[in-house]
Amino acid sequence: MEESLKQLRKPTIQVMNFISLLMILLSTTQYFYSLTMETTPIYLIITTLIEIIVILLGLLQLFEKNTANPLKKAKRYLIVGILTSYFTYLSFYNLYFFMAEENKYDLTRFWIVGFVFLFICSCAHICSLLLMGNTPHWFKGDKTMWIIILKIIACTFYVQKIIEYIMIPNVAESHFLIILSMFMIFVSNLLVSQYYLLYGRVLTDVNKISKDKKRDKHDN
Predict the structure, then answer these.
(1) pLDDT at 48 over 90
(2) Which residue from 26, 51, 182, 186 could staple onto 161, CB 3.0 to 4.6 Å apart?
(3) pTM for the whole thing?
């Protein structure tokens, strides 16, 4: 259990945080040219601020003291890990749009479509993991079929990225960032799956310890 908690806490989250911070710094270099805060779209400012908050949450985990409730800690690590994974992707994605704004391209519609697909497909991936773990009492229907449907929905993100790559203007010869962001979402989904697996191990260990304590208490 302790090893699973340790892996949930570090180091992949901090590595992703570093990558996200690097992308944010590269985005801010556009302000050394013609881009200003006044001309920066509000959606880029808001999502960048959220990215910074997520980075801070990941760094704070390094200095966290031991608590008596490992399951509560694991849940928090899982949430931070999921946020870190997807917002690291978003930092890659936003870099392209910072560059577009500096070069006087208005790509707001592309960003909105990309963000909506990110939200829907990431939620579908997370829900498929939750269904694979356990079945909620309110759930009805064929669980396997729903997992497949959710996986298919999650994979539509890659179709959207291919279409986006074809349609979006090649800003400052940086079209490769769209391909790179496609790779990043694959990495993000992989990490989210790993974090959920680690959380499942902690949950299993906690339940086992709880059952052992109840059995010992009953025997006494």
Answers:
(1) yes
(2) 182
(3) 0.86
Q: What is the pLDDT of residue 215?
A: 64
Residue 94 structure tokens? 């936003």
Mean pLDDT (whole number) for 89-118: 92
Q: Which amino acid is at 14?
A: Q
Contact 12, 191 (CB under 8 A): yes
Give the CA-trace dihedral at 70, 71, 74, 76, to 10 degrees: -110
Residue 169: cis peptide before it, omega within 30 degrees of 0: no
Could you give the CA distance from residue 34 to residue 102 in angstroms, rounded to a whole number?
6
Tokens, residue 134: 């356990």
How many H-runs (helices) and E-runs (strands) does the chain carry? 7, 0
Measured CA to CA, the distance from residue 131 to residue 173 in angstroms comes to 42
Cα within 13 Å of Cα(207), Cβ side: 6
pLDDT digits (tens, 9 = 90+) for 121-164: 999 999 888 888 776 666 777 778 888 999 999 999 999 999 99
Mean pLDDT score of the chain, rounded to an integer?
85
Is 70 exceeded by the pLDDT of residue 220? no
Residue 64, SS3 per DSSP:
coil
Query: Phi and psi dihedrals of 35, rounded to 5?
Result: -70, 140
Question: Which residues neighbour 165 within 8 Å (Cβ) at sequence distance 6 or greater?
Answer: 175, 178, 179, 182
- Closest listed residue to residue 60, CA positions, set 10, 95, 114: 10
Domains of the chain: which residue ranges?
A: 2-219
